[in-house]
Amino acid sequence: MSLTEGVTSPDLFRKWTGIGLVAGALERRVWVRAGVKITYPNLYILLVAPPGVGKYVIEEARALWTETKEPGSIAPAFHVAPDNMTKASLIDTLVKTKSIKLVPRGQALIYHSLLIASEEFQVLLPDFDQEYIGTLNSLFNNKSIHSESRRFGPAREIVIENPQINILAGVQPSYFVSTFPEEAWTTGFARRIIMVYCGKTPFKELFYDPPIEHGLRQLVLDKLGRMSQLYGEAKWAAAAVETIADWHRAGRPPEPQHSKLAHYNNSRSMFAIKLALISTVSRTGGLLVELVDVKRALAWLLEAEALMPDVFREMIGKSDTQVIEEMYYYLLSRYNAAKQKPIRGEEIIKFLLTRVPSEKADKILSMAERANILARVAGTQDLWVPKSLIREEE
Questions:
Q1: 30: which strand partners?
Q2: C-alpha to C-alpha distances, 389 to 17, 335, 336, 374, nearest whole angstrom
């Protein structure tokens, strides 16, 4: 966060870029168990925003991954993907990422890990290609082997041992509208992505040049280098186990309510575990997940989830004028149904939240009031009536 202070990107985007940065650096060398299930920290993170909001911070992550060297060496620590890849080139690139790590006990670890940082996800996936998405779904699961047959090309049979990819990408809501069919939100891909939404560009002074601690960039690169050598299973502190298990048992409150997130909700415990592991490595460089890491992981997840419904509201794509008109007729019908009793502001806000991102609801209500489309009842703080009816009564 300190290193990207001068980047014109929302704090939430900078935070999740940092989370994705660490997730990618851990590759397939670090894991944690919950019961018998092994969970690796790889993530598919999509920073969702209208044009110009500030997804550029993704390029900072790409640069850091690219510049990181193995400790005591000039060899790159990670394999970073090119901007655009077809499904075939994705697999060809993944094949070339073969890594062999000596481990304290047993045979050497062989794995293939590819880090994808793409400011525009549309470049990576220009169409809703079910075969391509099926491959992304399969690789997310950290299978021991990925194999496929090809009809063309020099390599007809491809077998990849211990494959894994991490994705940190930017996307516009309009891309989802034009590319993702409605049924796409019921697929496995929708269950595997964490969407981080922000609709407002942060203000920065034109010549803002924040003081950056001397050597901070190299410090980050050195930490990433050490993460590139980390290996093993992370253990759980008792309080951490109790807290995350209680949250899971209670139904993982609060759960996102939007219908398009129904399948995503099934993955929330898995994401909490991944984030707790990322937190502990980021915080300590070690492999003991403590209570503070679980609390931080849940805070990260819930903060992002609170804004996920805004993605779908933004996808509706209606103008403010259309929304205000719909709000007026909603208020008019409620006013008449209530025998001309004023309507509470919270009801109007709830209506607006089904049509616009949360950050725009109050703004639209204020615009409608200033345009004399509706009015606050005199002597009250939050009771409203349609303005035209006031004129008729007068």
A1: 232
A2: 50, 10, 10, 9
φ/ψ of 215, rounded to 5, equals: 80, 5
* Distance separating alpha carbons of residues 197 and 307, to the nearest angstrom: 6
Task: Write down the mean pLDDT value for the chain.
Answer: 91
Instruction: List CB contacts of 27: < 8 A, sequence separation 6 or more.
Output: 42, 78, 99, 111, 113, 164, 228
**DSSP at 355:** T
Inter-helix orientation angle 320-337/358-370, to 10°: 70
Can you read off the two tokens belonging to residue 205? 């002074």
Q: What residue type is assigned to position 336 of the chain?
A: N
Q: Which two tokens stand for residue 140?
A: 């997310």
What are the residue ranges spanned by the domains of the chain?
A: 11-233, 320-393
- The third-level CATH classification (topology) of the domain covering 320-393 is Arc Repressor Mutant, subunit A (1.10.10)
Percentage of residues of the chain with pLDDT beyond 90:
62
Taking the mean position of all CA atoms in its chain, how far away is CA 340?
Answer: 44
CB 23 within 8 A of CB 61: no
For residue 140, the number of C-alpha atoms closer than 13 Å in the C-beta half-sphere is: 21
| CATH class of the region 11-233 | alpha beta
Q: Coil, strand or helix: which one is 299?
A: helix
State the amino acid at position 240 in one-letter form: A
Question: Average pLDDT of 25-52?
Answer: 95
Instruction: Determine the Cα–Cα distance for residues 196 and 12; give it in Å rounded to an integer.
Output: 8
* Closest C-alpha among 272, 274, 277, 271 to residue 289: 277
pLDDT for res 266: 94
